[in-house]
Amino acid sequence: MSLLSDIAVPVAKLVNAKRGNEKAMENPRRDTDFFNRKNFRKEFITEEEFIDGFQVITVKTEESLNRHVIFLHGGGYVLRAVRSHKNIVERMVKKYNLKVTFVDYPLAPEYTADKTHEVLMKAYKSVTEKNIGDEFYFFGDSAGGGLALAFLQEARDNHVTPFPKKTVLMSPWPDISMTNEEIKDFEEKDPLLPVQSLIKVGKQYAGNLDLKSPLVSPIYGNMDNLGDIMLLFGTNEVLYPDCMKLSDMFDIAIGTRMELYIGENLCHDWILAPLKETDEALDAIGKFYLE
Length: 291
Description:
33% of the residues lie in helices and 18% in strands. The protein has 7 helices and 8 strands. The protein has helices spanning 17-26, 83-96, 113-130, 143-157, 195-206, 240-252, 276-290, and strands spanning 45-51, 54-60, 67-72, 99-103, 135-141, 166-170, 227-234, 256-263. It has an 8-stranded mixed sheet, sandwiched between helices. The two termini are 28 Å apart. The model is unreliable at 1-12 (pLDDT under 50).
């Protein structure tokens, strides 16, 4: 749900981003391709496959450890990955010596959550089978965070192995119904996310599923036995109330350990913006994966 078409925009302009994000979600672009393997420098090793026509690309170097991150980008379930997502992947690989697999999962309105989960499960099984001996982790920002959490619940319930040991949820979208009454108190604070547009694309993504099905709104699922989770979000984002609720649920869950990282006065998915706080958060994430 990272809704900037070019996150390198000066931060001062973010206050005008809501209107642009409404238009972007109304007519999502399909002509961007930042994860084309031709866009990676020679220092990176890329391995690519297509599952039901959707790209799954693994990025690594000769120095990569057997710590393997499955990367799910944000974009409200309707937008493709932006350049900043690629930058984060390259940083994870180069600075922290991780392997990273980016899954270009099916998007609404062309597809719904059923297809998205089908492709993601096939991709996960394929990647784990091809990389026996690796430890597997997840990273998801915004909608990608909601998808990652829903996948964890599904994988646990279906006894999928190997089960991801660690997951980073960056400004996750855990409830596409947007029915938390406290959300209205944060609408003016959030310079990025237009609530009515989120409600619309959430319905598109859900398809025939109930908006409160854990497959699309994992906040209604069970949080037990999900491994180690790092939860990051900002105090100035409209998803703050749901992320706080999620934090409370992780706190009392059995078999789930949470590390909480709150960005004071930061907006939704700030990790995509060129800020000093971004570097700090990425280093904390790197440490979380490596410790």
